[in-house]
Write a structure and sequence with these properties.
With 199 residues, the protein is of the alpha/beta class. It has a single domain, classed as P-loop containing nucleotide triphosphate hydrolases (Rossmann fold, 3-Layer(aba) Sandwich), CATH 3.40.50. It has helices at residues 5-16, 34-47, 83-95, 150-161, 166-184, and strands spanning 21-28, 52-56, 100-106, 111-118, 122-127, 142-147, 192-195. The strands form 2 sheets. It has a 5-stranded parallel β-sheet with strand order 2-5-1-6-7, sandwiched between helices. Strands 3-4 form a two-stranded antiparallel sheet. Helix 1 (5-16) packs across helix 2 (34-47). The longest helix has 19 residues, at 166-184. The radius of gyration is 16 Å and the shape is globular. The model has no long low-confidence stretch (mean pLDDT 94).
Length: 199
């Protein structure tokens, strides 16, 4: 499979025009290859002399005390992620050409950790499942959906996060993400759909 990252980077570079900050959203279900794609596109854009920052939506996971405790099928879409904080601390400031300052969620300690700053210049890539959800969709200048078969995504997730996470992946995360895909149809609103099996 041909590496499309060069073509994607060129398309993004053509779309930037004179924007001080250009926001790219890379969405896809868990294990689809979003983080790897973001890194590859980042390197391609840097080779084209763009300043690029990557923000991981996983850094906006809610501490366990703040998560919705309803059954998975009754929870709001993407309720484990603090999309309001992503909007208010990253997307809105950058859209206004202001410094973005956010606090990263630390998975091992289940708490918010250190602050990160994103200067209002160049290209900011926000990657993660739910990142182009309907409430955030129009804040992005360019949206990418990473498509990938479920069995491959599961295998990647277990390889990355460990066997202990399998039941949570199957019973919680996958059903919630499938609902997001079917109800909000983020792939339909993407400028580009990428084959994540090739990443």
């Amino acid at each position: 499979m041909k590496d499309r990252t060069f073509d994607i980077a060129k398309e993004i570079s053509r779309s930037v025009n004179n924007a001080q900050v250009f926001l790219v959203g890379i969405d896809g279900l868990g294990g689809a290859g979003k983080s790897i794609l973001a890194e590859k596109i980042c390197h391609r854009l840097e080779a084209l002399r763009f300043s690029v920052a990557i923000v991981h939506f996983d850094d906006f996971f809610l501490p366990s005390a703040n998560r919705c405790q309803l059954p998975v099928n009754l929870r709001p879409i993407g309720s484990d992620f603090d999309w309001i904080r992503l909007r208010d601390q990253v997307l809105m400031p950058l859209r206004a050409c202001q410094l973005a300052n956010y606090t990263r969620y630390d998975w091992p300690s289940d708490r918010l950790a250190e602050n990160h700053e994103i200067p209002p210049k160049g290209i900011a890539i926000i990657e993660g499942v739910y990142s182009t959800r309907v409430e955030l969709r129009d804040l992005f200048d360019f949206r990418i959906w990473v498509d990938c078969p479920g069995d491959l995504r599961l295998n990647r997730g277990i390889a990355r996060d460990g066997e202990a996470i399998r039941s949570r992946w199957i019973d919680e995360w996958a059903p919630a993400e499938d609902r997001y895909f079917s109800e909000q149809r983020p792939h339909v609103f993407a400028h580009i759909v990428v084959d994540g099996a090739a990443t």
